[in-house]
Amino acid sequence: MNIFVLMKRTFDTEEKIVIANGKVNEDGAEFIINPYDEYAIEEAIQVRDKHGGEITVITVGNEDAEKELRTALAMGCDKAVLINVEDDVEEQDQYTTAKIIAEYLKDKQPDLILAGNVAIDGGSGQVGPRVAELLGISYVTTITKLDIDGGKVTIVRDVEGDEEIIEASLPLLVTAQQGLNEPRYPSLPGIMKAKKKPLEELELDDLDLEEDDVEAKTKTIEVFLPPKKEAGKILQGELADQVKELVTLLRTEAKVV
Amino acid sequence: MTKAVENVIKGGSFLIEDVPCERVFTPEDFTDEHKMIAKTTEEFVVNEVLPQLEHLENHEFDRSVKLLKQAGELGLLGADVPEEYGGLGLDKISSALIAEKMARAGGFSISHGAHVGIGSLPIVLFGTEEQKQKYLPALATGEKIAAYALTEPGSGSDALGAKTTAKLNAEGTHYILNGEKQWITNAGFADVFVVYAKVDGEHFSAFIVERDFPGVSTGTEEKKMGIKSSSTRTLILQDALVPKENLLGEVGKGHVIAFNILNIGRYKLGIGAVGGAKRALEITIQYANQRQQFKTPISKFTLTQEKFATMASRLYATESSVYRTVGLFEERMSQLDEEKAKDGKEIAKSIAEYAIECSLNKFFATETLDYVVDEGVQIHGGYGFMQEYEIERAYRDSRINRIFEGTNEINRLLVPGMYLRKATKGELPLLQKAQQLQEELMMLMPEEVGDGVLEQEKYLVRNAKKIALLVAGLAAQTFGPKLDKEQEILVNIADIVSNIYAMESALLRTEKAIQKSGVEKNKQKLLYTQIFCQEAFNEIEAHAKETIVAVEQGDTLRMMLSALRKLTRHTPINVIAKKREAAAALIEAERYIV
């Protein structure tokens, strides 16, 4: 089976976000594989181990992402592709990423493509579905179970806490939701083997793409942090008075009713 | 000796020679693989070990065995075992990083360390081909667990005074071992023990003893102050039948194995202490940020900040020292030719070359850890005394580190002795350097220290080395061969040497980092270096003064004190201000950062 995983390098979940010059400051920050993409990688490995085949993990970014690709290889992926856009693309959005990935995949005849349900940074959840659209294949998002039997695929999908069971056929793109599996840590032998696995680096040129072809369709107007959490307030006095005060506060201060 | 080996830095030579910063290994030199290995270890500890820690603390050791097997599956037991025996044969930096990250698991890290270190390494380094093939694959996966049995009720620091005996049976097929080995880590579940016994009551030798051999049993579980997650029992040998081929090394050469393994045990403890101290500092800063008194988080008080900065600066010096030392082993081993690189005895030799550094790391790092957990409890206040708080366990777990693998006192006493031996054997030109210094002191002029980056620290390190030579030289002159009876003086010398190694390691690391990425990105490192060098130098001055006064009299005393005054002349930095600055970054990050 020809399996592809779409992976994004994101901020470590424990990093504090600092904004400088209208951008999130990346100086000295730790980066990780987007946790939802880790589920995708783990699932890909399990599918491959059961049905055979090869896993290629792909990312669009700069050379810093090599580290996360190596981690994916250490977990068990077979090959990695870094599409390095550092020199070519200034503003990048979900359209840009999806277009580049689809262009790369169009002649690769994928059987199964796995991606995270969302990235914990941008959180758009769009790249996976967009790639499927561009390739003209089916997709199912937020999956929590995947069974493949010949060409038939049975999927459990998380729908806001409920479950939906879907049957589909290959080729297919799925995006992973929490609960799909428990991602493994790269073992030490895995880490050592990863050094020798192929990691291909491509640029837009190699995909016959021009800058204009992938120009972002959206524009970031402003980047700001959520308001600082204020200390809570405990209301005092008779219950009836407290209720009155609460309603007043909800109207005047919080302005939610 | 080939040319390449001559080019290697000699053990202990830091005291009389300067190395350029490019020559030292620093944590900034970790490769991506190193970082991945560290991360896997950390995730294993956090996700698999810590959730079970309470059970482990209650001596549910079937869980320890299971966890060790899990660690084996991840490759966390095979770093030091060569590939041909089922291990990974990784570099020493990797195995050091595993030890550092494992430390957070408290007592379990002692189980792990005893298995991969002192338990397995005697076979890795000194085993015959048959012994390696028989034991190592199972040890590398965790299918079998190893332990190390040296200490006896009557012989601790005096290891060679062991009473356990071994006697070849009449058939000449088996050794019969009799005796008791005390406080054996992993004894509750270990399958393989490396045991020391005296053949015919005389020749100190090592044996591989399996738990299932007739006459082998273990005592009851000890009740310990800390590291309760590790099993500690007596190993009892009553006419234990050990096949002849399980003799490890040669008869009467057990001390070679014991001392080499001790070197490794010592530097590994130093690394574990770094990991433990980082964690203790992290939870303490987090606590101080959240705990309010007088309507203020206690981390806002400058006295708390002073403690954070002191802990972190000392930790920085420790971390720099231990990884510098591992880098020395690595450099030396990488210059062995292929055949020698596979010879355990050559590997042991590469480590033994740095026995001085191993001892220095052992006592300096374990005292850093003990200092950090102590202040950690202090900052936690009454809560730090309560078992619900992690720092309480860290405090108890820390204490043993100053005692095992040679007490810190023994390790201190060893340092001047090893130097003396190196000088007599002509390995280090200590005497020549000391004579040179005497001449230099006669006409010593105070040096103008520039105000460039690290210039003051370089000056302090330079002069500290001179002070060490001065003091050690005077002591050797006065007492001659009787110097080994003057334990207080020996320990003062060891402390001076230790501070020099730590100062210089911090200095070289910071210098290397600044060369690579500039001052701006290495401010925290610079602050730690400035703070630590100042405080260590103050200690050196005090130790030197005390020693000179004990060694000299009359006019010579006055002359030497005046020389010391010249060597210590400098304008101290404002440590209080530097500490506030360093603390601000720590409080912001809520963990040890560099």
UniProtKB/TrEMBL annotation, chain A:
Family annotation (Pfam families): ETF (PF01012)
GO cellular component entries: cytosol
Gene Ontology terms describing biological process: carboxylic acid catabolic process
Keyword set, alphabetical order: Electron transport, Transport
Limits of the Electron transfer flavoprotein alpha/beta-subunit N-terminal domain: 21-211
Cofactor names: AMP
Subunit and interaction comment: Heterodimer of an alpha and a beta subunit.
Name of protein: Electron transfer flavoprotein subunit beta
UniProt source species: Thermaerobacillus caldiproteolyticus
From TrEMBL, chain B:
All copies of domain Acyl-CoA dehydrogenase/oxidase N-terminal, residue ranges: 31-143
GO MF, one annotated term: flavin adenine dinucleotide binding
Top-level lineage group: Bacteria
Coiled-coil region(s): none
Reaction(s) catalysed by this chain's protein: a 2,3-saturated acyl-CoA + A = a 2,3-dehydroacyl-CoA + AH2
Cofactor names: FAD
Ranges of residues in domain Acyl-CoA oxidase/dehydrogenase middle: 147-239
Record keywords, A-Z: FAD, Flavoprotein, Oxidoreductase
SUPFAM superfamilies per UniProt: Acyl-CoA dehydrogenase C-terminal domain-like (SSF47203), Acyl-CoA dehydrogenase NM domain-like (SSF56645)
Gene3D superfamilies assigned: Acyl-CoA dehydrogenase/oxidase, N-terminal domain, Butyryl-CoA Dehydrogenase, subunit A, domain 2, Butyryl-CoA Dehydrogenase, subunit A, domain 3
Pfam families registered for this protein in UniProt: Acyl-CoA-dh_C, Acyl-CoA_dh_1, Acyl-CoA_dh_M, Acyl-CoA_dh_N
Domain (Acyl-CoA dehydrogenase/oxidase C-terminal) ranges: 252-415
Domain spans labelled Acyl-CoA dehydrogenase-like C-terminal: 463-566
InterPro entries the record matches: Acyl-CoA-dh-like_C, Acyl-CoA_DH_CS, Acyl-CoA_Oxase/DH_mid-dom, Acyl-CoA_Oxase/DH_mid-dom_sf, AcylCo_DH-like_C, AcylCo_DH/oxidase_C, AcylCoA_DH/ox_N, AcylCoA_DH/ox_N_sf
Recorded family membership: Belongs to the acyl-CoA dehydrogenase family.
UniProt xrefs under PANTHER family: ACYL-COA DEHYDROGENASE, ISOVALERYL-COA DEHYDROGENASE, MITOCHONDRIAL-RELATED
Protein name: Alkylation response protein AidB-like acyl-CoA dehydrogenase
